[in-house]
Write a structure and sequence with these properties.
Shape: globular
Number of strands: 17
CATH class of the largest domain: Alpha Beta
Strand content: 5-15%
Helix content: 40-55%
CATH topology of the largest domain: Rossmann fold
Radius of gyration: 26 Å
Number of helices: 23
Distance between the termini: 78 Å
CATH architecture of the largest domain: 3-Layer(aba) Sandwich
Structural class: alpha/beta
Number of domains: 3
Low-confidence stretches: none
Largest sheet: 6 strands, parallel
Strand order of the largest sheet: 2-1-3-4-6-5
Mean pLDDT: 94
Length: about 575
C-alpha cells in the first residue's frame, strides 16, 4: 500500500464521479497529491507554476466543461494565491475542487517553513471546507476520510455550483520509496441523488394569475452561457406575446432586432418621461449578474409591482431591490411550461389578449434608435480611439468562436456594442467579482477545452497584472489575445469620481510605458502592433486565421483621446434621447 493511500483513494473517487481534469502548481508538500493525479490513467493533469494564474486557468476549464475541475497547491502562502480565483468561482457559480496540501497541525506557529493557518482559509467563498486527518492508524480515521471526500465531491456537483475545499495535512515521507507502486482501489462511492424540483399545480395557478393581471411585463436576462433552448422560448414569448426581453452581452442574448440589448445607452438619458414609460408591472429575471449599471439604477428607482427571479436553487439575490418571488426552477423549463400553460388556457377560453403591445414597441424603438446612434458614432474614422477599435474587432470575430472580455472598460465597450445573432460568438467575462485579476488566465483555461477560436480582449493593466497566465507550457494555438494598450487605467479618466480628482494621474491611472511584445515573445505567441485604422484592418485580416501557435495583437491608443471620445458619446446620448417624441 502507498504511504498516502487516502490521497490515491480521493483521486480514484473523483474519477468515478466524473472529474477528469486537474491543474496543479508544483510544490513538495503537495507531491503525494500531484503524483496521484499525474499517474492516474484517466486523469488529465496540467502544471501551472503561478498559483493565482493556476486558479483562474482551472476556473476557465470548469466554466467550459460545466463540471468540477481539481485545483492543487502546496502549503503556506501558496494557498492564499488561489483566493482571487476561488472568490470569482464562488460568485460566478463555477465548480472547483480545491485540494491544498498542509503540514500536520502540531507544526503550526513552530517556525517551520510554509506553515500557516489553512483550516477554513477561504472563509465564506467556498460552499464548504473539509479537512482530512494527518494519521490513519485507527479505522475510524479512514472511514472519516472516505465519508468526507464523498461529501465534498458530491457538493462540488450540487446546485448552486461553486468551489469546495479539502485541506490535506501530509506527513513525510512525501515521495514514493523503493518499489512502492500506486494502486487505485475500488473505493466506496456514496451517490447523492437529486430530488426532482417541481412546482405544485396550486403554485402554477397563482403564478399564471399574477402573470395575466400584469399588463406590462419585462423579462431581463443576466449573465449565463449560450443556451439555444432558452433563446428559442424567449424569442417565441417576445414575438407572440409582445413582451420585451432585455439582456447584456454576457447574457449571450444576441442583437437580432427582437431582443433589447442597447438599454445601457438609452437608459442613461436624463429624460424621465422616457423612463416612466418603460416601467413594468411585472419583472421576470433569470441568470446571474448584469453589467448594465443604467438598467440596475432604472429598476431600483422605478420598481415594478412584482418581481420574479427564476433559478435552479434557493440562494436569494435581490440586485434590483424589488424581489417578490424566488422561484426555484430551471429557467428554460419554466418559460416553456409557462408559455404552454397560458397559451392553452387562452385557446380554451378563446382569449387572445396579450400584453400591452405599445410597451414592447417603446423598448424596441429606443433600442433601434440607440443602435443607429452608436453605429454612426463608431464608424467615424477621423479619430483613432479604443471604442471604435473594439467595434471593428467585434465585426471581424469568426463565427462560432468565443470571446473572453476583461473587466474595466473592455467589457463595458463590448456591452454597448453587443453581438449580432449571425456571428454565433459566445461571450464570457469574470463578472462574479468583476476584478481584473485572472481575465487572461481564464481565457487560457477555456482555450484548453475547445477547438474553437478563443479571443481574449483585455486592457493593458489587466494584461500585465495577469501575464503569468502565459507563463506555462499550456498556451494553445487557438488562443488570440488582443491588448488595448493606452498605458494606464483608462476607466478612471472616464468615470465621474476619479476623473475629477487632482490625484488622477498619480494615484488612479497607474501610468506605465510597457509593451506586450516581450511577453508575447516569452510565451511563443506571434506578435503584431497597430496604432491606426488602416494597420488594424490589415492586421485583423490575418490575426484570426488558423495557425500553429497563438497570436497577440497589441493596439496602442491615447487615453486622453479615448476619454474625450467617451464624453462626446455621452453628450450625443443626452441630445438624442432628450427629444420628447423619441423619434
Amino acid at each position: 500500500m502507498a504511504i498516502h493511500q487516502h490521497v490515491l483513494n480521493l483521486v480514484e473517487l473523483c474519477v468515478r464521479k466524473g472529474i477528469r481534469q486537474a491543474i496543479v502548481s508544483p510544490g513538495s508538500r503537495s507531491a503525494p497529491i500531484t503524483l496521484a493525479l499525474a499517474r492516474h490513467p484517466e486523469m488529465t493533469t496540467r502544471a501551472v507554476a503561478d498559483e493565482r494564474s493556476a486558479g483562474f486557468i482551472a476556473m476557465g476549464l470548469a466554466q467550459q466543461l460545466r463540471q468540477p475541475v481539481i485545483l492543487v497547491c502546496t502549503s503556506g502562502s501558496a494557498v492564499y494565491n488561489l483566493a482571487p480565483a476561488v472568490a470569482e468561482a464562488y460568485f460566478q457559480e463555477i465548480p472547483l475542487l480545491i485540494l491544498t496540501a498542509d503540514r500536520p497541525k502540531e507544526w503550526t506557529h513552530q517556525q517551520d517553513g510554509q506553515t500557516i493557518y489553512q483550516t477554513d482559509i477561504f472563509g465564506k467563498h467556498v460552499k464548504q471546507s473539509f479537512e482530512l486527518p494527518a494519521d490513519f492508524v485507527h479505522p475510524d480515521a479512514r472511514w472519516f476520510a472516505e465519508r468526507a471526500t464523498n461529501e465534498a465531491v458530491n457538493l462540488a456537483w450540487a446546485e448552486p455550483r461553486g468551489p469546495v475545499h479539502i485541506n490535506i495535512p501530509l506527513r513525510e515521507p512525501l515521495y514514493p520509496v523503493g518499489d512502492e507502486t500506486f494502486q487505485y482501489p475500488a473505493v466506496r462511492v456514496i451517490e447523492q441523488l437529486t430530488a426532482a424540483s417541481a412546482l405544485s399545480s396550486e403554485t402554477w395557478h397563482r403564478l399564471q394569475e399574477e402573470w395575466e393581471t400584469a399588463e406590462r411585463k419585462l423579462i431581463a436576462i443576466g449573465q449565463g452561457p449560450h443556451d439555444p433552448a432558452l433563446l428559442a422560448i424567449l424569442k417565441k414569448i417576445s414575438e407572440e406575446w409582445r413582451i420585451p426581453v432585455v439582456g447584456d452581452v454576457i447574457s449571450n442574448l444576441p442583437r437580432n432586432g427582437e431582443f433589447v440589448t442597447q438599454q445601457d445607452i438609452f437608459l442613461s438619458s436624463a429624460n424621465e418621461e422616457l423612463k416612466n414609460n418603460l416601467v413594468p408591472d411585472l419583472l421576470i429575471t433569470c441568470g446571474q449578474s448584469f453589467i448594465s449599471k443604467q438598467l440596475k439604477v432604472f429598476l431600483r428607482n422605478h420598481q415594478p409591482k412584482a418581481h420574479w427571479q427564476i433559478q435552479p436553487h434557493n440562494r436569494l439575490a435581490d440586485p434590483f431591490q424589488s424581489l417578490t418571488r424566488l422561484i426555484p426552477h430551471e429557467p428554460t423549463a419554466f418559460f416553456e411550461k409557462l408559455f404552454s400553460d397560458i397559451d392553452y388556457q387562452r385557446f380554451v377560453s378563446n382569449d387572445d389578449e396579450d400584453s400591452d403591445d405599445n410597451f414592447q414597441e417603446q423598448w424596441q424603438t429606443l433600442d433601434r434608435k440607440a443602435t443607429r446612434l452608436l453605429s454612426q458614432f463608431l464608424k467615424d474614422e477621423t479619430v483613432f480611439h479604443e471604442w471604435a477599435v473594439i467595434q471593428r474587432i467585434l465585426d471581424e470575430l469568426p463565427a462560432d468562436s468565443q470571446l473572453h472580455v476583461a473587466n474595466s472598460m473592455p467589457v463595458r465597450y463590448v456591452n454597448f456594442c453587443g453581438m449580432p445573432e449571425n456571428q454565433r460568438v459566445e461571450v464570457f467575462a469574470n463578472r462574479g467579482t468583476s476584478g481584473i485579476d485572472g481575465c487572461l488566465s481564464t481565457a487560457v483555461g477555456a482555450a484548453l477545452t475547445t477547438d474553437q477560436l478563443v479571443t481574449a480582449l483585455i486592457g493593458d493593466v489587466a494584461f500585465f497584472y495577469d501575464r503569468n497566465g502565459l507563463w506555462n507550457n499550456l498556451v494553445p494555438a487557438n488562443l488570440r489575445v488582443i491588448v488595448l494598450n493606452n498605458h494606464g487605467g483608462n476607466i478612471f479618466r472616464i468615470i465621474d469620481g476619479p476623473s475629477k480628482q487632482p490625484e488622477l494621474s498619480a494615484y488612479f491611472e497607474t501610468s506605465q510605458p510597457l509593451s506586450a511584445e516581450n511577453t508575447a515573445k516569452d510565451a511563443g505567441l506571434a506578435y503584431t502592433k497597430v496604432a491606426s485604422y488602416g494597420n488594424l484592418k490589415t492586421a485583423l485580416a490575418d490575426f484570426f486565421s488558423k495557425a500553429d501557435r497563438g497570436k497577440l495583437l497589441e493596439i496602442e491608443t491615447d487615453r486622453y483621446v479615448n476619454a474625450e471620445q467617451f464624453q462626446r458619446y455621452k453628450q450625443l446620448v443626452q441630445e438624442t434621447f432628450l427629444d420628447r417624441q423619441n423619434r
